Amino acid sequence: MKPVIVVGFVGVTTGLIAEFQPDDSLIYVEEPDVVRKRHVREQIEGVGFVRGLIEWEYLTPGRADEFFHAHRDLDPAAVVPAIEYATPFAARLAERYGLPGATLGAAQIMRDKALLRQVTAAAGIRNPASVRVTSPAEVLTFMRDRPIVLKPSNRQASVGTQVIHDPDDVEQAWAHCTRQDEGIFVPDRPMELSMLAEEFVEGEEFSVEMLVGNGKPLWANVTGKQLVPGPRPVELAHIVPADIPPELDDLLKRETARVIDATGFRDGIVHCEWIVAGGVPHLVECAGRLAGDGILDVVQLAYPVELLRCYYAVLKGEDPPSDLPARAKSGAAVRFLTIEPGVVESVEGVDEARQLDGVHLLQVTVAPGERFDGLRSSWDRAGIVMATGDTSAEALRRAENAASTVHIEVR
């Protein structure tokens, strides 16, 4: 049996993968530092579909070609990028094995937000004004007494991202945004610092999850988003499907198809984020991989659709193995738990919240005695609730009700 190579380990997907991957059929590739820090070998021990784990520094240029020469005999059925940082390596490795994939060119464009703006703007897609910056002085020159967003061009999970309204805050924001420690999720060696200053666009936020085969959309969903108030644009909730008019739903899907065409993306899934201002979608970013933050789970619940299985099938060069419904049959939502900085004293109400109507999942990721230093990125949230309902609005109400039932005391 030809194995599937998955680049980047995401533990929360193992249960979903087990539903369709046979025993001894999948090989993980992960950075050695991440394997050690996240105890990946312990997490995959005894998982039936796992054939093995190869430790490989895939974030280093040229390493996909080295991997191909070192492991030609693997002859995989597919190469699947599981996380943002794995997308260029996986795309190039798929090319070397002659398999479907994003293409290295598209993956590199999507991994660099500045390149993505350059390419998509040339294709006529609306982008916020944006410039690469290397110092607070350059940020101030771009700002010109208007609100802006300062962010990295090459990171994930809202790491190092901040909205700035006052020029007096630029120096401090630069210091905060250029400290981009993702802890156990990245290698210990430093990553290149690449920063953008961008026009702040105020409007409703959405993402489009689109399955793509041979450069053409096969299926798509629009997710509504809520953000935590304040200067750090960290997502507070995801609502599937977005509660919007059909005309806007169709427009966001068409614009995402234009991004696919502009970048030359061929096979896989894209997670494309938009801000709609004055009825016009403005591109925030587009990733050539599955959405995180529980979006995959709530998409699969709401439609329902075996999206992960379909994703693997497309990267194997096969037709999607199940129906792809055009419209969701019900609603589903993710709501994150947030807390103030301090030391966690107690966590109560978890069991009660889990018993509430529609609650599909509730996890708290902080414990008494832990210190919380504040919400800086998506990695810093205190827990997650997933809920379902007859409509997306009902699903969100149920998720919010469960979240409010959990009481986390912080000193």
TrEMBL record:
Keyword Oxidoreductase tagged: no
PROSITE patterns linked: ATP_GRASP
Stored Pfam families: ATP-grasp_4, LAL_C2
Keywords: ATP-binding, Ligase, Nucleotide-binding
Residue ranges of domain ATP-grasp in the record: 117-316
SUPFAM superfamilies for the chain: Glutathione synthetase ATP-binding domain-like (SSF56059)
Name under which the protein is recorded: ATP-grasp domain-containing protein
High-level lineage: Bacteria, Bacillati, Actinomycetota, Actinomycetes, Pseudonocardiales
